[in-house]
Amino acid sequence: MTTTTDTNGHEKLRGAEYVLGVLDAEQRREVERQLREDPELAAAVEAWQERLAPLAEEIAATQPAAYVWPRILAELGLGGSVMARSAPEPTASGGLWNNLRLWHWIGIGASTVAAACLVLLVTLPRPTPSPAPTPVQTASTPPPTTFMVAKIEQNNGIAGWTATMDVTHHRMILVPATPQAIADNRSTQLWLIPPGHKPISVGVFTPDKTNSMDLPLTLVKQLSDKALLAVSLEPKGGSPTGQPTGPVIAKGSIGGA
Amino acid sequence: MVQSPDAALDREQLAQWLTLSGRGDESAFAKLYEHSSSKLYGVCLRMLRDRGEAEDTLQEVFTTVWRRASSFDASKASAMTWLITLSRNKSIDRLRKRREAVGDDSMIDGFADDAPTPPSHAQTSQDHQRLDHCLDELEDKHRSAVREAFFSGATYNELADRCSVPLGTMKSWIRRSLIKLRTCLER
């Protein structure tokens, strides 16, 4: 059934169909190919984008996970907004940013870094005007912290996981580096150990996958450069007691501003 | 940190950050991400209905922004329209790939009942109010089909299945609606 009466009108409608999103993959590629050669179609598509885009105002904004921005920077090889305090191992080649790339992005580089703990502070610009971020060398002028990153080292000295904590949005992403194999009937559980306190469970996680975990405010308040993250082996499903019951297989310091 | 809602954001400021990103300004790029990522993530999430896929798509959107922002022309389009269009296109392409791979596993029994409902006019732009007014002039089922298409990224075939009408009928509904919308919006 055709509802258009002339070729021109039909082409313009094709642009509208493309913008609305009802075409299949092949038809979309065809329109995109034509767009490069047909200024009229291109103009129609632009006009339809302006007409229909306001509908998106109805979609609720949703905060993406904190690790998406570092992943974007890593993919683009950008590092302008990344700042470091405690320095990485001087022998680590490629500098800080490569470490960030490895840690955030593929999670396998951590085992090659000798430093027991590397704290990276990634600052997103604040809404208020402020000078462009510059690297901070001393602890006396700490930048606003959005992220903390810590390596969780296994007892054999090899990094098991890297934990990135988003203090602002109360999230943690745990990325496997080179974790040891875990028996099927056991679970790995992550604990936060503030200085002088008992371990607080962060949660049971899948050892060989990237885990995204909530950090309740009570846990966020305990994050400091004196605190430890530790992984214990627990019965399937996690510790029945609320405290570690099995061996600690990995641990690492975390830090903060 | 509460992100600025796009409605409250100065359009010119967003356009400036986008333009500067096109010139390689990393701090403008970071500002752009800070002020638009939650909106664009919402768009991706609405279409893909999967956090991981929406995150991957958002990453793709912003790497494309960095590489192609120089093609943004502030005299021709608003920055938010440009960004939303890019996000919808990336999401739709991903949906098409997903459906090629596993078949369409989304609901086939009518339209999603959690489709966004029009917010009160006080919260939306004049452009939205105008579009909403024109959508109101369509028959109910036609309007639902257009809205579902926009928010879910479904193809004609999928829309026809979800609505249990023949493909030709769905095409006719959508095309007639688009023509009416264009006429109404150009009045």
TrEMBL record, chain A:
UniProt entry tagged with the keyword Cell membrane: yes
Occurrences of domain Anti-sigma K factor RskA C-terminal (ranges): 113-248
GO cellular component: plasma membrane
GO molecular function, one term: sigma factor antagonist activity
Membrane topology: Single-pass membrane protein
BP GO terms, sorted: regulation of translation
Keywords assigned: Cell membrane, Membrane, Transmembrane, Transmembrane helix
Sequence segments annotated as region (Disordered): 234-257
Name this polypeptide is given: Regulator of SigK
From TrEMBL, chain B:
Coiled-coil portions: none
First and last residue of the signal peptide: none
Alphabetical list of SUPFAM superfamilies matching this protein: Sigma2 domain of RNA polymerase sigma factors, Sigma3 and sigma4 domains of RNA polymerase sigma factors
Residues of the RNA polymerase sigma factor 70 region 4 type domain: 129-181
Highest taxon of the lineage: Bacteria
Domain RNA polymerase sigma-70 region: from-to ranges: 32-99
Pfam families attached to this UniProt entry: Sigma70_r2 (PF04542), Sigma70_r4_2 (PF08281)
A Gene Ontology BP annotation from the UniProt entry: DNA-templated transcription initiation
Region annotation (Disordered) ranges: 106-127
Annotated transmembrane regions: none
Keywords: Sigma factor, Transcription, Transcription regulation
GO MF annotation, one: sigma factor activity
Gene3D superfamilies referenced in this protein's UniProt entry, alphabetically: 1.10.1740.10, Winged helix-like DNA-binding domain superfamily/Winged helix DNA-binding domain
Similarity section: Belongs to the sigma-70 factor family. ECF subfamily.
Listed PANTHER family: RNA POLYMERASE ECF-TYPE SIGMA FACTO, RNA POLYMERASE SIGMA FACTOR SIGZ
Name of the protein in question: Sigma-70 family RNA polymerase sigma factor
Provenance organism: Oleiagrimonas citrea
